[in-house]
Automatic annotation (TrEMBL):
CDD domains reported in the protein's UniProt record: F-box_SF
Domain called F-box: residue spans: 1-51
Protein name (record): 5958_t:CDS:1
Superkingdom assignment: Eukaryota
Biased composition range(s): Low complexity: 376-397
Species classification: Eukaryota, Fungi, Fungi incertae sedis, Mucoromycota, Glomeromycotina
InterPro entries to which the protein is assigned, alphabetical: F-box-like_dom_sf, F-box_dom
Alphabetical list of Pfam families matching this protein: F-box
Originating organism: Diversispora eburnea
Region (Disordered): 362-408
Length: 408
């Protein structure tokens, strides 16, 4: 006799007491468990108060003021499957010297790079050869057998296996100018962080109780401040640092659903309702692996904010034609314009170059058309005023038989 079926809420409560990586691995037991495992993860995060930590600067140095801030889970969106973490109550901005601002480490409480024996898990695999050893000497040519063995070894060491917790270091590609302030993003395939950075800031605890005579000395001890607004992650990011994962052999020609869902979440939060998912700039982002440069993620987010999600190059081209008083229907007359629409980013010409080339072509055609039309009118008047029908016929054949540019 089969055991009784437990209600989903009971199963969810049970799963919530397990580590997140175990909840994730049990999601495929059946459809019911798959439908509730993320809710169990959300319950687990609240139950055990599991946090994300954001740390600025090199990890081996301890510098005051504190370079880290903790974030707690405040929500889970079922449609986008995104967990949102915000700084804990009364959290202060991170203050650091400008030279430490570039490196950002994002970690999760349950990540651990040690195995059950207490030993650190190696970040690379081992190369198996006939004698279980690899003697690499001087390589004269890339086609040498030793070169091929070295290639296999390097693939195993640097590309095949890694602990994702060790890969969650990011670099700010943009920092504020002196006395400036910026809003920027960091992210990868299943995580995005939003923060505000100010330059030349004096920490509040140092301002308190400062005399006027000491204010000048305090000005020379300014910091940059980093205020984290939120970190949004998918489940794959939460479990990504708990195990050794194998990198995919092929990074492209497949859509990473995590990036796709994350893009949906970003656009919906900022009320961006219209964007073209097939635009090259979007496709390149959602087709990218987790090693994608953070600067491109930031540029995409900035592009979304500026354009409000409108990536339609055709609309932009039509608006430019209207500004130049050119009929937009004419753009289909020249094949180089539709070709540019197909993939503008990989075109050898920029948008402005295509627009100028098109404008010149239209003006040149109009210029060529006007003299011919005046000749036709002059010839027509001559034909009407003469009685010689033979000359009329010759004139008609000579001019009106021509196919003028722009006319059929």
């Amino acid at each position: 006799m089969a055991p009784p079926h437990l209600p989903n809420d009971v199963v969810q409560n049970i799963l919530a007491y397990l580590p997140i990586k175990d909840i994730f691995s049990l999601r495929r037991v059946n459809r019911d468990w798959y439908s509730i495992y993320e809710h169990a993860i959300k319950q687990h995060l609240s139950l055990f108060n599991v946090k994300i930590s954001v740390t600025i600067g090199p990890q081996k140095k301890t510098i005051e003021p504190s370079l880290s801030v903790a974030l707690e889970c405040v929500g889970f969106d079922l449609d986008s499957r995104v967990f949102t973490f915000t700084p804990i109550p009364n959290a202060k901005p991170i203050y650091c010297k400008p030279n430490l601002l570039r490196q950002v480490k994002i970690s999760f409480d349950e990540w651990n790079t040690k195995n059950s024996n207490g030993n650190t898990t190696p970040l690379e695999g081992t190369l198996e050869t006939d004698d279980n050893s690899l003697n690499i000497g001087y390589i004269e040519h890339p086609s040498d057998p030793q070169a091929q063995e070295l290639l296999k070894y390097s693939n195993l060491r640097f590309h095949k296996f890694y602990v994702e917790a060790e890969k969650k270091s990011y670099y700010l590609e943009e920092t504020p100018e002196k006395d400036g302030e910026i809003e920027t993003y960091l992210g990868d395939r299943d995580m995005i962080l939003k923060c505000n950075i100010k330059d030349s800031v004096i920490p509040e605890e140092e301002i308190f109780g400062v005399d006027d005579e000491e204010e000048e000395d305090l000005e020379s001890n300014k910091y940059s401040s980093v205020e984290v607004e939120f970190v949004q992650v998918l489940t794959s990011w939460l479990v990504g640092g708990t195990t050794i994962n194998k990198l995919p052999q092929e990074f492209h020609k497949q859509i990473y659903p995590q990036r796709y869902c994350l893009l949906d979440k970003i656009t919906s939060d900022d009320s961006i309702l219209r964007y073209n998912r097939y635009c090259p700039s979007v496709l390149k982002w959602i087709l990218s692996d987790n090693l994608k440069d953070d600067s491109e993620t930031k540029q995409l987010c900035l592009h979304l904010h500026v354009t409000k999600g409108d990536f339609t190059i055709r609309d932009k081209f039509e608006e430019a034609l209207e500004e130049r008083s050119i009929d937009r229907q004419l753009m289909w007359k020249y094949s180089f314009v539709p070709r540019f629409f197909v993939d503008p980013e990989n075109s050898s010409d920029t948008f402005e170059q295509i627009l100028d080339r098109f404008s010149r072509s239209v003006k040149s055609e109009d210029k060529n058309r006007s003299p011919n039309m005046s000749i036709n009118n002059k010839t027509s008047n001559t034909n009407k005023s003469t009685d010689n029908t033979d000359n009329n016929s010759k004139t008609s054949n000579r001019f009106f038989g021509l196919r003028l540019p722009g006319f059929s």
